[in-house]
Specification:
It catalyses: D-erythrose 4-phosphate + phosphoenolpyruvate + H2O = 7-phospho-2-dehydro-3-deoxy-D-arabino-heptonate + phosphate. InterPro entries: Aldolase_TIM, DAHP1/KDSA, DAHP_synth_1. The protein contains 10 helices and 12 strands. With 368 residues, it is of the alpha/beta class. The chain has a single domain, classed as Aldolase class I (TIM Barrel, Alpha-Beta Barrel). The longest helix has 25 residues. Bound molecules: erythose-4-phosphate (E4P) and phosphoenolpyruvate.
Length: 368
């Protein structure tokens, strides 16, 4: 692959051994160039630092609020993302005594086979793959969201993306499709925020536990520095990784027996038992209406006094459901990837989770 110079839109020669001989490339700017154009502002830095602290404390139980990672499956329209962030910021304030709300700003999408891979890689949504533009759009949006005081969650997919975006993120995910990948575990070991390890796509929680153990250790791997040069990145290990139960095809894992089994696996590995449950994906069968049902069942476990469930993930956007990418009349604020809960359903589910958290707090206080 080309490593030097500005080869924007150039046709580059593949190194020996690559299939294809020639390929088109839009070489992105270096992390230093993009961070220079779009620097972390003081307001954003304060927001990220507070967001990381809150997230860590909610996951450890030092903060008895429930962590809620909620937002669109993917960002495809920056204006819709911002409109959602404004509403969510207000709701986060209203429910802030009980919920620590973090917004999903997912700009890279893993795919089961093929499909649109997210704003970062294909910001024009048409296969033109202008990653340089995608990086700038993603960073601009994340800066605005952070400046609103709303902590941001994202999935880490490309090993180079953290060099451009990590300073804006309060909670990261390694997804079900990559949780067994050595590269992603090494990446997580150097990230400065809590990272949720999803159970594997076939349902294995053991691989997420292995990922936590791996990411907690120091590693050295090939990465890039601010100037985009390949460097050996040495990490010290991330102590804030945890399991995210997301179910698998036809087999949800959000019920009390699943939480107990995951906590057992974590205990056997001498890890803290606090975890997050994703009400979407394999736990909802990607059905946004079922997602609300699942979230309420998780709320019932919390209200009954479960203390291992430290967080919940939800996929929500302004308009319920999903639409096909490239429709002639796109609906503003509706997902182009997985179906999401609409705004009204999201408010109602979050209010219920806040009430469940109050009941857990009361139950825990009386048993002390
Ligand atoms: O969260 C989004 C999707 O579940 C993920 O990107 C995979 O989507 P796909 O199964 O449609 O490829
Ligand atoms: C792709 C996602 O999740 P998972 O890895 O669980 O499929 C996601 O949360 O967008």
């Amino acid at each position: 692959m080309p490593t030097e110079g500005n080869l924007d839109s150039a046709v580059a020669q593949c190194p020996p051994g690559y299939i294809g001989g020639q390929y088109r490339t839009h070489l992105a700017s270096t992390p230093g160039e993009i961070l220079g154009e779009l620097p972390l502002t003081e307001a954003a830095a304060r927001s990220v630092s507070a967001g990381r602290l809150t997230t860590r404390r909610a996951l450890s139980g030092d903060d008895d609020r429930l962590l809620v990672v909620v937002g669109p499956c993917s960002i495809h329209d920056v204006n819709a993302g911002l409109a959602y962030a404004k509403s969510l910021g207000d709701l986060a304030g209203d429910l802030g005594d009980d919920l620590a709300i973090v917004m999903r700003v997912y700009v890279e999408k893993p795919r089961t086979t093929v499909g649109w891979t997210g704003l970062l890689t294909d910001p024009a949504l048409d296969g033109s793959l202008d990653i340089g533009r995608g990086l700038r759009m993603a960073r601009t949006l994340m800066l605005e969201v952070a400046e609103m005081g709303l902590p941001i969650a994202t999935e880490w997919l490309s090993p180079s993306a953290p060099a451009y975006l990590a300073d804006l993120i309060s909670w990261g995910a390694i997804g079900a499709r990559t949780v067994e990948s050595q590269v992603h575990r090494q990446l997580a070991s150097g990230l400065p925020m809590p990272v949720g390890m999803k159970n594997g796509s076939t349902g294995s929680v053991g691989v997420a536990v292995d990922a936590i153990r791996s990411a907690a250790s120091p590693h050295a791997y090939l990465g890039i520095n601010r100037d985009g040069r390949p460097v050996t990145l040495r990490t010290t290990g991330n102590p804030d990784c945890h399991v995210v139960l997301r179910g698998s095809s036809g087999r949800p894992n959000y019920r009390a027996e699943h939480v107990r089994e995951a906590a057992r696996l974590l205990s056997v590995a001498s890890l803290p038992t606090g975890l997050v449950i994703d009400a979407s994906h394999g736990n909802s069968g990607k059905d946004h209406e079922q997602q609300a049902v699942v979230a309420r069942e998780i709320g019932a476990q919390i209200a009954a006094g479960d203390t291992d469930i430290r967080g919940v993930m939800l996929e929500g956007f302004l308009v319920p459901g999903r639409q096909e990418l490239g429709s002639d009349e796109p609906t503003f604020g509706q997902s182009v990837t997985d179906a999401c809960m609409g705004w009204d359903a999201t408010v109602s589910v979050l209010q219920d989770l806040a009430a469940a958290t109050r009941r857990r707090r009361a139950a825990t206080a009386t048993t002390r």
